[in-house]
TrEMBL record:
Keywords: ATP-binding, Glutamine amidotransferase, GMP biosynthesis, Ligase, Nucleotide-binding, Purine biosynthesis. It catalyses: XMP + L-glutamine + ATP + H2O = GMP + L-glutamate + AMP + diphosphate + 2 H(+). It is an enzyme of class 6 (ligase). The gene is guaA. Homodimer. One of its GO terms (molecular function) is GMP synthase (glutamine-hydrolyzing) activity. Catalyzes the synthesis of GMP from XMP. Its EC number is 6.3.5.2. Pathway: Purine metabolism; GMP biosynthesis; GMP from XMP (L-Gln route): step 1/1. This is GMP synthase [glutamine-hydrolyzing]. ATP binds at residues 29-35. Residues 2-194 form the GMPS ATP-PPase domain. It comes from Thiomicrorhabdus lithotrophica. The lineage of its organism: Bacteria, Pseudomonadati, Pseudomonadota, Gammaproteobacteria, Thiotrichales.
Length: 319
């Protein structure tokens, strides 16, 4: 029978049989798929698993610490955190083209990941959170937007200099099954059902050149937006919601002082497949409240706008 409990038992048995006493490595992003693989492998092989978590400084508010708290502290999983914000900011300096930014982020990611994995001795297996739709997708043409680590090492095989075999315990599962597995394995509901987050992270939500200063401002605004969506019971009614940093300045006034600061856009969409999407008709009261909080609480933001573009013709992300 194809129940969550059976899938878990079956996967654990298969993993144990496959890897025996070998060491296994996993690229942990904090996203649902790699998180579920981490929980599953930890249950199957315990300390034989080491995760590598690349914190590129383009993650959401406190996300890096949350990933560490969850996996390393709570679950006792071995996680190596590569804090490489500076390196990514340097690599991205001066670049404004969206696809080139994606390439830079992807390239740096692989470099860091490979460097960290080279430090681990005697690892024979590379685990990945490939799920069934990824398998299908890579059979056809690739859009270049696929998750970095996946498009690199993915289904097609490993780079030649990496003598590791692939282990992909979620390869036959759909997203909803992966989520159920995650909950059954003890991962928190709000992590398992979190909105999707692109591989290049805030790198494609800061329009034009990426700077740490912008990322820090964006994280604060986005955190307020998401926090309020949850409070107003709107988070689960939207498929994806986030804040975009616009590197233009707009005039405002606080008390009797004029201010001249940045603009952020709020985005929220409803979609089933992310191929088409409708902009979410969030209540005006809600938008008013969020905009007020963002402008009042974040000194460098003077204006908030709401994105009323559906896909097509607009994409969900702004870049
Ligand atoms: P778009 O903007 O293409 O987004 O309408 C559709 C979905 O894909 C996500 N997305 C990405 N995911 N790397 C990713 O891993 C990317 O470069 C990327 N670009 C877009 C986006 O967040 C949305 O869920």
């Amino acid at each position: 029978l194809w129940t969550t409990a059976n899938i878990i038992d079956d996967s654990i048995a298969r993993v144990r049989e496959q890897v025996g006493t070998d060491q296994v490595m996993l690229g942990l992003s904090g996203g649902v798929d790699s998180s579920v693989v981490a929980a599953l492998l930890h249950k199957a092989i315990g300390d034989q698993l080491t995760c590598v978590f690349v914190d590129h400084g383009l993650l959401r508010y406190k996300e890096g610490d949350q990933v560490m708290a969850m996996f390393a502290e709570n679950m006792g999983i071995k996680v190596i955190r590569a804090d490489v914000e500076d390196r990514f900011m340097e690599a991205l300096a001066g670049e404004t083209d969206p696809e080139k930014k994606r390439k830079i982020i992807g390239h740096e990611f692989i470099e860091v990941f490979d460097a960290e994995s080279a430090k681990l001795k005697g690892v024979k297996w590379l685990a990945q959170g490939t799920i069934y739709p990824d398998v299908i997708e890579s059979a056809g043409s690739k859009t270049g937007k696929a998750k970095v680590i996946k498009s690199h090492h993915n289904v097609g095989g490993l780079p030649e200099d990496m003598e590791m075999s692939l282990i992909e315990p979620l390869r036959e599962l759909f997203k909803d099954e992966v989520r159920k597995l995650g909950v059954a394995l003890g991962l928190p509901y709000n992590m398992v059902y979190r909105h999707p987050f692109p591989g290049p992270g805030l790198g494609v939500r800061i329009l034009g050149e990426v700077k740490k200063e912008y990322a820090d401002i964006l994280r604060l605004a986005d955190n307020i937006y998401i926090e309020e969506l949850v409070k107003w019971d709107l988070y689960e009614k939207t498929s994806q919601a986030f804040t975009v940093f616009l590197p233009v300045k707009s005039v405002g006034v606080v008390g009797d002082a004029r201010r001249y600061d940045y603009v952020v856009a709020l985005r929220a969409v409803e979609t089933i497949d992310f191929m088409t999407a409708r902009w979410a008709h969030l209540p005006y009261d809600f938008l008013e409240h969020v905009s007020g909080r963002i402008i009042n609480e974040i000194p460098r933001i003077s204006r908030v706008v709401y994105d009323v573009s559906s896909k097509p013709p607009a994409t969900i992300e702004w870049e």
